[in-house]
Amino acid sequence: MTIKAGSIVSHTGALEWGVGKVLEVTAAKATIHFSDGKNRKIASSHFTTLQPAAASSYTPPETAPAVKAIRALRTAKSKK
């Protein structure tokens, strides 16, 4: 499998991470955002542990934007 930005993959050794979207690929590593909410860097020597996954199976976590919105709201209230 060729790893490139935008690919949807799963890691065969860590299925609990869920499905991930490849954000960046260099000669040394790939940065992947997994559906458990974490970005992970996978060394190119471990690319064989990545398998293609259906694009419909990737669901990005939605908790991060909500946290930012709450912080912005708290900041706005404290300035009053």
Structure description:
With 80 residues, the chain is an alpha+beta fold. The protein has one domain (8-78): Thrombin, subunit H (Beta Barrel), CATH 2.40.10. Helix content is 20%, strand content 31%. Strands 4-3-2-1-5 form a five-stranded antiparallel sheet, with no helix packed on it. Strand 2 and strand 3 form a beta hairpin. It starts with 7 loop residues before the first strand and ends with a helix. The model has no long low-confidence stretch (mean pLDDT 85).
Report how far the terminal alpha carbons are from each other.
55 Å
- Average pLDDT rating: 85
Q: What spatial form do the alpha-carbon principal axes imply?
A: globular
Secondary-structure element series: EEEEEH
- Class per helix and strand makeup: alpha+beta
Q: Report the portion of residues in β strands.
A: 25-35%
Low-confidence runs: none
